Amino acid sequence: MLRLAMKMLVGDRAKYAGLLFGISFTSFLVTFALSYLCGFLTRGFAVVTENPAANVWVMDPAVESTELTTNIPDSALSRVRSVAGIAFAVPLAFATVDARFPNGRFQSFRLIGVDDATLFGLPPLQGGISATVLRTPDAGVVASGGTAGKLETPVSKAAQWPYGGPRLDVPARRLAAGDELLVNDHRVVIRGLAKSLPRYPPKPLMYTTLSNAARLLPPERHLLTFVLARAAPGVSARELATRIKAQTGLKARSSADFKADTVNWLLINSEDVGDMASMVSIAMLVGFGVTGVLLFMFTTDSLRQYAVLKAMGADSRLLLSMIFVQSGLCAVLGTGLGLGLCAVVGKIAMLEFDYPFRMMWFTPIFGGLMVMMVSVVAAVISARPVLKLEPGVVFAGR
Amino acid sequence: MRCTGVTKSYGAGDAKVMALRGIDLDVRHGELLMVVGPSGCGKTTLISVIAGILDRDAGECRVLGRDLKRLGTKERARFRGASIGFVFQLFNLLPALNLVENVTVPLLINGVPRKDAESRARRVLEEVNLGLRLDALPGKLSGGQQQRVAIARAMVHEPKLIVCDEPTSNLDHATGQTMMQLLRSIAKSPGRALIVVTHDPRIYDFADRIARMDDGKIVEVIEGGGKERLQ
Ligand SMILES: Nc1ncnc2c1ncn2[C@@H]1O[C@H](COP(=O)(O)OP(=O)(O)OP(=O)(O)O)[C@@H](O)[C@H]1O
Ligand SMILES: [Mg+2]
User: Fold this and answer.
1) Per the count of CB atoms within 10 A, which of A315, B33, B110, B131 is most buried?
2) Is B159 in the pocket of ligand 1 (CB under 6 A)?
3) Tens digit of pLDDT for each residue in A83-132?
4) What is the ipTM score, two decimals?
5) Where does residue A190 fall: left (phi above 0), alpha (psi -120 to 50 degrees), or beta otherwise?
6) Which domains does chain B possess?
7) Which residues of B touch A308 (CB under 8 A)?
C-alpha cells in the first residue's frame, strides 16, 4: 500500500515536480546560507590559517579576535621568548593605514608588519618573487584580501596627482612591482603581490617589515600586536599557552583556540551574521510556504481518493502512513537534489567568483533537518483533512 | 442484511433534513436487490448506512449478523474492508495506479501480500475481460472499461455484500446492459448479495427484487415478476 502511495504521488507529475522543487529550494537555500556563513567565518581567522607554523598566539589580554586588536609592549617578545618550551617566537604588528595612489585616490589598508630578520608572516609572493624583496628600502607587498578593484593604479603617468587635483576616473590597472604609494606622506614601493588568503571583513593588505612599519606609522606607544610562537617538540600548544599566560600575564591562545575565539567574536559582533540568519529564515519560510501549500494541495486534491480508500476499509493509521511516506519521499529526494545543487553552485561560486563558501560536515545535516521539519509540518497539516474526511463523500454525485 | 425502522437525518435545527424516515428492508443471500426512487429520496443515504459508512440515528440494522453501529471506528473500517465491496457512480479509480494496482487495493488493505494480491487482481481482471490491458492507467480506458475495473475491485476480496450506487448512469445503454450482466453473474455466487441503487429503468430486468423509495421511506418492494409495472 505504501508503494502505491508513492506511485500516487509520483503519478501527479505537476504537483510532484512542484513539491520536489519546493523542498530542494529549501534545502539548497538553508545549506547555501550556512555554507556561506561558514565560509566567511573561516576568512575571519585567515591570518591564523596563513601561519600554520606558529601554534600559539600571544596578545593583549583584552583581545578576542584577529579583527579588533590592540598593541602590547615591545618587551613582550623577549618575555615570551624566555618561557620554557618555545621553539621560536616572532613579532607581528597590525595597523590600519590610508594609502594614497598616484592619481590621488586613497584606500584604507591593513598594514601587517613582519619580523625583519625572518619575514615570518609574509605569505609567498605571486610570480615567484623572493620574499627578501621586503628588505629593500621602503618596500611593501600588497594583497587584495578578498576585495575587488581596490588595488587599481592609473595606467598613465600623465594622470598623476597632485598636479591639477586628484583624477579618479582615469584608466587604471592593478598594482604591480615598481609602483609607488604614499602612506602618511612616506613613500612605499610595491615589490610584489602576496598570495594571501581572502579576509573577512574584506580589506586590502599591505605587508612591510616591522622597522618599515615603524617609519610609516605615526609615533605610537606600542607597535607590536601579536607574538607568534611555536611550541618545542613534546610540548602541546595549549600547554605552552598556559605557561606563557602564567609567566607573562599576556593572553596566549593555541591557534585552534584563537580561531574559535575569532568565530565566536564574529558571530556576536558581525552584522552579516544577522543578515545570514534572516536569509536562512526567509529560505525556511519560502520552503514552508511552497512545500506546505503544495503537499496540502496534493492531499486535498486527492481527498476523494483517500475517501475511496477509507470507504474500502483503510484505517487512519494506514492513511497517515501513506501521507508520511509521500512527504518522506519528497523530503529525501528534495534534500538530495538541494544538497547536490548547493555543492555544485557553491563550488562554482568559490572557484569562479572567489566566494566565501565552505560546506562543513554539519551544514548538510542542518539543511536536511530543516527539510525534515518542513515536510513533517506539511504532512501534519495535510493529514488533518484526510483524517476528518467523511467516507460518505465517495457516493456524492460529483 | 436486515433493517427495521432505520432513520437518518443530516444537519441540525432549521437546516435539519430527514433523509431516512423509518426503513424496513432485508436482503437475502444470492439476490440482487435494486433500490429505485426519485432524486433526493435517500437512496445513497440508505446504502451508506447499510455499508457502515454512515451511522443511523435510530432503528435496527444488522449486516452479516453484525450491528455496525456498535463497532468502533477501527473495527468498522476493518469490517468494511473485509466484507463489503463498493461500486461508485464515478468509478473512483485511483488515476495514478494501473489496473492491477487499482484492483489490489482492497486486498492490500486487508493485509494480503503484494505478490498474491497482484496475481488475484490479474485473475479477476481477466474475468471481466480486461486481461489485455493490465498495465494501462484508468484514464486511458472508456467509461465501460473503467466501470469493469471498479467491479473487479469490488469483488476481488470476495466480499459478502456489494453495494453499487448508480453503476450505469455514466454509461451508454449497451455498456450498461453488459455491466448489469456482469454484476448479476457475481450475485449468483452463493452467500453473496448485491444492492444496486439506480435511476435507470432499462436495467430493472436484472433485479431479483426492487425496493421503491420515496421521501425517506420504502414505498413498496416488488418481486421479480412485477417489474413491468414500474417501467
Ligand atoms: N451530507 C449531507 N448533508 C446534508 N444533507 C444531505 C447530505 N447528503 C444528503 N443530504 C440530503 O439528504 C437527502 C437524501 O439524499 P440522498 O443522497 O440519500 O438521495 P438520493 O436518493 O441518493 O438522491 P440521488 O438520486 O440524487 O442520488 C437529500 O435531501 C439530500 O439533500
Ligand atoms: Mg444518490
Assistant:
1) B33
2) no
3) 999 999 999 999 999 999 988 889 999 999 999 999 999 999 999 999 99
4) 0.89
5) beta
6) 2-92+157-230 (3.40.50.300)
7) 86, 88, 92, 94
